[in-house]
């Protein structure tokens, strides 16, 4: 099936931090899609002149809205949909008081499938077309998420958390059970359609050395799987972690000594890092993931995006629902802007939108399929309306450049600014 999606189109091909030649945009742009894959992107009249637009093709015109590659969320917790906005605690108490009891519910028959549909609906309502998700400890939570995403042809990177200590028994596995369940999930889902597996030891506090060994073994046996965990989010977490691993040089060294670092590893938070840890992350190609709304909500600290970039570490940006407070990557970029302002780093809107799209795809090593509008990429798209609310419409009266429009979307936007989301060429919202 061929279709033409028309609008004001913005596509990144390089990181604005590296070069001024980083994007192309077309006021009357068009994206030609064949069976869910982008086959051409450019100026509508130009594509027409080149004879690329077949007569009678199905067309949707989103002008004056902006079309970009769909947002990618590189760190989110699927079983925490009903944890968001839980009052008063910092990380360790928040996990014990709210999060572990909620994740325990995923043992119940029928709960995970019901939540998986709701979760994916929330993502696409906010313009997110790919997420990297932690599931609960229960194999069926990951099963449910993969099955729901596969049915929508939506690219997910996900894994069941491995955790065998320091949490209630209902959310614990054992090193062997964690290994067996993860392996069964990899065999069933990794590479099935658009699904990919992330080996997911939750963090060093909830994994014994024996379990991290098993996670490392899985990683060695499945080198094309991602690995995701948490690193240096909060001071009390770091102190407790180091007391559990007294021989480790530092927090990162725990994961390193179990074979868990590399370009496919995503280290959520990565806030309170020592110079040695930053150098080792750069050396191994391990990725940091910035979770702005969560870092503020849980009072965790300020992520040093500029420092990490200068050291050669690639970072993703993410919501971290339910420590995070919004599914919106626009709201996430807004809070990210403020955190970086506190450190004298002003995130430019072009860099911000690059980060939430192609930048996050690069962090995942998936930039050949998602994050851009280049031919060959999947037609995962977000359509943004910078006049979505009265306040935005008024502010837009003063906007003169694309960068200003993007910044208004970044600072004032949320799901109301998402006019449409396409997953593999399929519109996810009823047409307006
Ligand atoms: N560290 C270990 N588990 C979690 C979690 O669920 N959320 C956050 N923010 N940090 C964690
Ligand atoms: Zn997390």
TrEMBL record:
Keywords: Hydrolase, Metal-binding, Zinc. Binds 1 zinc ion per subunit. Its EC number is 3.5.4.3. It is an enzyme of class 3 (hydrolase). It catalyses: guanine + H2O + H(+) = xanthine + NH4(+). GO terms for biological process: guanine catabolic process. Pathway: Purine metabolism; guanine degradation; xanthine from guanine: step 1/1. Pfam families: Amidohydro_1. InterPro entries: Amidohydro-rel, Guanine_deaminase, Metal-dep_hydrolase_composite, Metal_Hydrolase, Metallo-dep_hydrolases. The keyword Zinc applies. One of its GO terms (molecular function) is guanine deaminase activity. Residues 67-426 form the Amidohydrolase-related domain. It comes from the Bacteria. GO terms for cellular component: cytosol. Its cofactor is Zn(2+). Catalyzes the hydrolytic deamination of guanine, producing xanthine and ammonia. Belongs to the metallo-dependent hydrolases superfamily. ATZ/TRZ family. PANTHER family: GUANINE DEAMINASE. This is Guanine deaminase.
């Amino acid at each position: 099936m061929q279709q033409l999606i028309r609008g004001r189109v913005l596509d990144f091909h390089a990181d604005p931090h590296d070069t001024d030649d980083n994007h192309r945009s077309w006021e009357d742009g068009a994206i030609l899609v064949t069976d869910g894959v982008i086959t051409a992107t450019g100026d509508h009249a130009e594509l027409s002149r080149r004879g690329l637009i077949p007569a009678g093709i199905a067309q949707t015109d989103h002008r004056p809205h902006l079309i970009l590659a769909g947002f990618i969320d590189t760190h989110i917790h699927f079983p925490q949909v009903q944890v968001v906005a839980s009052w008063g605690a910092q990380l360790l108490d928040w996990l014990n008081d709210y999060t572990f009891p909620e994740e325990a519910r995923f043992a119940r028959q029928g709960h995970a499938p019901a939540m998986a549909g709701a979760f994916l609906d929330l993502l696409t309502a906010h313009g997110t077309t790919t997420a990297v998700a932690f599931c609960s400890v229960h194999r069926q939570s990951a099963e449910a998420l993969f099955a729901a995403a596969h049915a929508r042809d939506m690219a997910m990177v996900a894994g069941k958390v491995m955790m065998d200590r320091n949490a209630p028994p209902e959310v614990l596995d054992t090193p062997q059970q964690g290994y067996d369940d993860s392996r069964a999930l990899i065999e069933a889902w990794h590479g099935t359609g658009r699904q990919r597996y992330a080996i997911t030891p939750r963090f060093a506090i909830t994994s014994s050395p024996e379990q991290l060994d098993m996670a490392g073994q899985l990683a060695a046996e499945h080198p094309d799987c991602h690995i995701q965990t948490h690193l240096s989010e909060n001071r009390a977490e770091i102190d407790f972690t180091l007391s559990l691993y007294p021989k480790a040089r530092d927090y990162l060294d725990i994961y390193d000594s179990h074979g868990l670092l590399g370009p496919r590893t995503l280290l959520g938070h990565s806030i309170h890092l020592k110079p040695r840890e930053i150098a080792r992350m750069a050396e191994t190609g391990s990725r940091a993931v910035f979770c702005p709304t969560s870092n503020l909500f849980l009072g965790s600290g300020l992520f040093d995006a500029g420092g990490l970039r200068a050291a050669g570490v690639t970072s993703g940006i993410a919501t971290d629902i339910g420590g995070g407070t919004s599914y919106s990557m626009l709201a996430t970029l807004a809070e990210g802007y403020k955190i970086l302002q506190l450190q004298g780093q002003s995130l430019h809107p072009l860099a911000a939108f690059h980060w939430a799209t192609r930048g996050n795809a690069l962090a995942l090593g998936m930039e050949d399929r998602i994050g851009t509008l280049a031919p060959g990429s999947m037609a995962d798209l977000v359509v943004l309306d910078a006049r979505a609310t009265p306040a935005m419409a008024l502010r837009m009266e003063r906007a003169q450049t694309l960068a200003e429009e993007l910044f208004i979307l970044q600072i004032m936007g949320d799901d109301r600014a998402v006019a449409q989301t396409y997953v593999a060429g399929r519109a996810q919202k009823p047409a307006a």
